[in-house]
Design a protein that fits this description.
By secondary structure, this protein is of the alpha/beta class. The protein contains 39 helices and 24 strands. The strands form five sheets. The protein has a seven-stranded mixed beta sheet.
């Protein structure tokens, strides 16, 4: 009984089969054992997960098989057929020759990881001990013999002559079939991938494989030489038995403990520190706190998780000792823990906020929970570096992201591989982006492109582009490349390669990443810490630093209870406020008209792509416009605060347990699936089980339909309540600053370059809050934007395009050291500035204090010794200045861009403020400050757009017909003429745009 070696699409630029297809392929050919045979172990967890999913389905089918067979049902499954078993293996180069290794023990697996890790970091590495080493050619086998290493020649039809020579010399030959491709189309796809990987074109790319490598059924393979040779067959079977004699432990938690604490004392130290923290947080213990803490600590002890809490605490404390971080936000499910709150790893009281600890940790949980810690965005790289420094580069790695081809990336990659001109690529990229399916799950590119185009002839309809589209369709969903997880980090007790291979991170010096993504890391048992960057923490940090004593002693509690802050949030005046500034969230706040903490927690989770129907139901029920009578007691008990609407991930779990009779673990599996890329394929099975469970519990069909309709809205992404509560806390602190100190707020928001809108939109909102925006000034501006009193906002020199950063910083240092500049001549005598920097600063207005006539061109000539006699200075009027500001600052100071374009190009008699008059047809110039393209249920693109002019904001929608006629999307920072019909929907003004 031989086995196969499978090459998946995780062999970048080579393999053509995603995990699902490779496993199905191996089974169809008749194999019961398949070894991963990629270059590296990147795809092993994915193969394993796919096999587990297939096995689960197979067991369910097999349970019904006897009845089907007895009934004579055609094609009934054979319950005696053994399931496919997955083995570990990897290929690599060593001393210039190609080899592969199949571990024969846990130690062999670790040795293979070590080799792959060392080679990824530029070392030769030693061949792994306790592994079967397979040479792909005879010179490779001979090299092994010279090195004193026992190896085997991997036989195939391609190297039949070498196999015969090896057998004649009594050298070992094995012949498991390598599954590369099956058909000529598969070989073509391999060649295409090779061209993409090498950044070449298909005509110039040589395939690594040839037709003799095509896979055949197991029986046919074993009837051929060399597999049919008795000595080879025996050796191959012996190899299979050798590599099948062990199993890799999977699912046992692996986490390092903190430095400086004896492992035997972890539980005791954690308990002592937590009790101290509870007293710091609450002042004293009471019955509920004692009960909650005892419950959490007992479960943490039982699951062996004390080391992890202490590790996270150690990292945060160690960084604070180095001056970092100044602020953190513990979020995600870990924020549901009283232990986290007591250790100051989260910021929201989980008892008062009614956060469910079981969302974080349960007795049934087999995969490790993780904790998310947000740091200020500009401190995160130092945070990561400090973790590597403190625990060592052999024990720490960030987690990889596995990036798969989507329609846009697939089409571009294939077009480049076919050598299409740049102009065509740019045109196609705009078209893909414009039709709203750039990142959709849909794969039929030719059909989509034909449907979304009304042009009679285009590049997409030529024969070449038709072929490109077909090939790109095949490529969608295949592994493309690695990137770095935003913050996922693992720390292991010993060398990380004992558990997983790791390699240098792309574009991050001194940082390594695991070969596995977060799902693989978690499935194995490596406990992940998410060390993430958050711009709003920097916004609050910088604002508090400026405000000093004006900041309340307990800003979190103070901001939540501040009536003016609640009023600001209730009216949706939250542009710039973290997490609640998007148009959808602002409109929801306006519709509900409530700004309390509990409502904001709900709204932070309710805004998700598929929930729009239930958002409307929720709003009507809150406002009393729709009588809410729970359709089932479960909804009344579990969802009372949200009027029967599922809001949080915990709600999915609760409903699964209470309605379908599931265990907490089973319900949590559904919760996790809803956020995964393969949800569409696997969800129907969970739906069937859910409906079956509800039927067994006697739940009426209408209630089941209502519950499942809400569960479906969690596809893609959703949040748990601890996450939303943690972010709502940050929202309130941010909103408090905006409410009481708007100048400081907007300066901090724009300086940290974060948020939903471009800088020019934040300036528009600043003016609506009666702030005066002042331009860049060589004597008054800082590098960042800054507040000047309570009503002034000064543009920072960071905003001036073309000015060299090092020269501007030197200018600021000179000014701080020796005082303001008396004149431009004084500045130029004290500073050695390039002509480029002087021109940029002068044109942006930084030298206007020395140009009483407003002539900025004269200032530029000053750097060159004065205006030449034959050059006539050009006056700079309001409109000239606005043009320069848009070009150099990406914003305007005195004249809104819409007004500038209206004067320059004419037309547009109306204004954005006129949208408040329903039924009126409007024509006006406006700046696009936000947009979102979505697909309707029919798959047609439409767009939500936020427009602004000097009179205010207006929300707009471009329905599919308008979007199709316009043939391109509205893009942020565009200034354009628009026309549409002002309507009022649910108390909100919306302009229905017309092409």
């Amino acid at each position: 009984m031989s086995f196969a070696l499978g090459i998946s699409d995780f062999s970048a630029g080579e393999g053509i089969y995603p995990a699902e297809l490779l496993i199905a392929f191996a089974e169809r050919l008749g194999y019961t054992h398949l070894a991963a045979w990629d270059t590296g172990l990147h795809g092993f967890p994915t193969l394993r997960d796919e096999l587990a999913w297939r096995l689960e389905n197979r067991l369910e089918v097999a349970a019904r098989a006897p009845a089907l067979i007895a009934a004579g049902v055609p094609g009934a499954p054979d319950p005696e057929l053994p399931p496919l078993r997955l083995l570990i293996g990897s290929r690599f180069m060593w001393k210039g020759r190609p080899y592969g290794a199949l571990p024969c023990s846990r130690a062999g697996y670790a040795a293979l990881n070590k080799l792959l890790t060392e080679q990824a970091h530029g070392q030769e590495g030693a061949l792994p001990a306790d592994c079967a080493i397979l040479a792909e050619d005879l010179p490779g086998l001979e090299l092994l013999l010279q090195e004193g290493v026992y190896g085997l020649l991997l036989g195939s039809a391609r190297n039949a002559v070498a196999c015969a020579k090896a057998l004649a010399a009594r050298l070992p030959v094995v012949a498991p079939q390598v599954l590369r491709f099956r058909t000529p189309e598969g070989l073509d796809l391999h060649r295409l991938k090779r061209a993409i990987h090498t950044q070449s074109t298909v005509p110039r790319t040589e395939a690594l494989w040839d037709p003799r490598d095509a896979a055949v059924p197991k029986r046919e393979w074993e009837s051929r030489f060399p597999a049919a040779e008795p000595a080879v067959a025996r050796a191959t079977e012996a190899l299979r038995e050798r590599v099948c004699g062990w199993d890799l432990s999977w699912g046992s938690w692996v986490s390092a403990g903190p430095l400086g604490i004896d492992p035997g004392a972890f539980d005791a130290v954690l308990a002592q520190r937590v009790r101290t923290g509870v007293i710091e947080r609450f002042g004293a213990f009471n019955g509920p706190l004692e009960s909650r803490l005892a419950h959490e600590l007992d479960l943490i002890h039982e699951k062996g998780f004390a080391a992890y809490f202490l590790l996270v605490e150690d990292l945060v404390k160690a960084l604070k000792h180095k001056g970092l971080p100044t602020r953190i936000c513990g979020r995600g499910s870990g924020a549901a823990s009283l232990v986290s709150y007591a250790l100051h790893l989260s910021n929201v009281d989980p008892v008062a906020t009614n956060l469910m600890f079981e969302r974080f940790l349960t007795k049934e949980r087999v995969d490790p929970p993780d904790m998310d810690i947000d740091f200020a965005w500009d401190e995160r790289d130092e945070v990561i570096a400090a973790v590597f420094e403190r625990y060592g580069k052999d024990r720490v790695a960030m987690v990889a992201n596995h990036v798969f081809f989507k329609p846009r990336s697939a089409l571009r990659a294939v077009a480049m591989a076919h050598g299409r001109p740049d102009a065509e690529l740019k045109s196609m990229a705009k078209r893909i982006e414009g039709w709203g399916w750039a990142d959709a799950e849909r794969k039929d590119l030719p059909a989509l492109m034909k449907r979304t185009s009304d042009r009679k002839s285009s590049a997409a309809e030529t024969e070449v582009w038709q072929r490109i589209q077909l090939q790109a369709t095949r490529l969608v969903g295949h592994f493309h490349q690695l990137s770095v997880h935003p913050g996922g980090t693992v720390v292991t007790p010993g060398p990380l390669w004992e558990h997983a291979a790791f390699q240098p991170a792309p574009a991050k010096t001194g940082v390594s990443i695991t070969q596995w993504d977060k799902d693989g890391v978690e499935a194995y048992g490596l406990v992940k810490i998410d060390l993430l960057g958050n711009r709003s923490l920097a916004v609050i940090r910088d604002a508090y630093e400026v405000l000093g004593d004006k900041v309340p002693k307990d800003p979190g509690t103070h901001s939540r209870n501040d009536p003016e802050t609640q009023a600001l949030l209730a009216r949706g005046d939250s542009i710039g406020v973290f997490y609640v500034e998007s148009p959808a969230t602002r409109q929801l706040q306006q519709r509900v008209g409530k700004g309390d903490f509990e409502t904001l927690v709900i709204h932070s989770s309710l805004i998700r792509p598929a929930a729009y129907h239930w958002v409307d139901r929720y709003v009507k029920r809150v406002r009393g416009e729709e009588a809410y009578t729970p359709s089932h007691p479960v909804f009344a008990n579990l969802l009372s605060e949200s009027f029967g609407v599922l809001i949080y991930q915990e709600d999915v779990i609760k409903v699964g347990v209470e309605l379908a009779g599931w265990s907490h673990f089973e319900a949590d599996q559904l919760r996790k699936l809803l956020g995964k890329p393969d949800c569409a394929r696997k969800l129907p099975k969970f739906e069937a089980r859910f409906r079956e469970g509800c039927a067994g519990m006697g739940v009426p069909a209408a209630v089941v339909e209502e519950a499942w309709d809400m569960i479906r809205t969690f596809r893609g992404y959703s949040f748990c309540k601890p996450h939303s509560a943690s972010y709502a806390q940050v929202s309130f602190e941010s909103a408090w600053v905006k409410t009481h100190h708007p100048a400081v707020f907007f300066a901090s928001v724009i300086s940290n370059q974060g948020g939903f809108y471009p800088a020019i939109a934040y300036l528009g909102d600043a003016r609506r809050h009666r702030l005066t925006v002042r331009g860049p000034d060589a004597n008054r501006s800082l590098w960042k934007f800054s507040a000047e009193g309570e009503q002034g906002l000064r543009v920072g020199l960071m905003q001036v395009k073309g000015a060299r950063k090092e020269e501007v910083e030197a200018l600021l240092s000179e000014r701080d050291a020796n005082g303001p500049f008396a004149s431009l001549e004084d500045l130029l005598s004290r500073m050695d500035l390039s002509i480029t920097t002087v021109e940029a600063l002068a044109s942006a207005g930084a030298f206007d204090l020395w140009a009483p006539d407003g002539d900025r061109t004269r200032l530029v000539w000053t750097r060159l010794g004065g205006v030449p006699p034959n050059v006539r200075p050009r006056p700079t009027d309001l409109f000239d200045r606005a043009d320069l500001e848009l070009d150099l600052l990406s914003l305007t100071l005195e004249l809104h861009p819409a007004a500038l374009y209206r004067v320059r190009k004419g037309g547009g008699p109306d204004r954005a403020a006129d949208a408040q008059k329903p039924g009126r047809r409007l024509r006006f110039w406006a700046l696009v400050v936000a947009e979102k393209t979505v697909l309707t249920e029919k798959g047609e693109p439409m767009q939500f757009v936020t427009l602004e002019d000097e009179t205010g904001l207006c929300e707009c929608v471009a329905f599919p017909d308008t979007f199709r006629q316009r043939r391109r999307p509205y893009r942020v920072a565009e200034v354009l003429p628009v026309q549409g019909l002002a309507t009022r929907q649910d108390g909100l003004t919306v302009v229905e745009l017309q092409a």
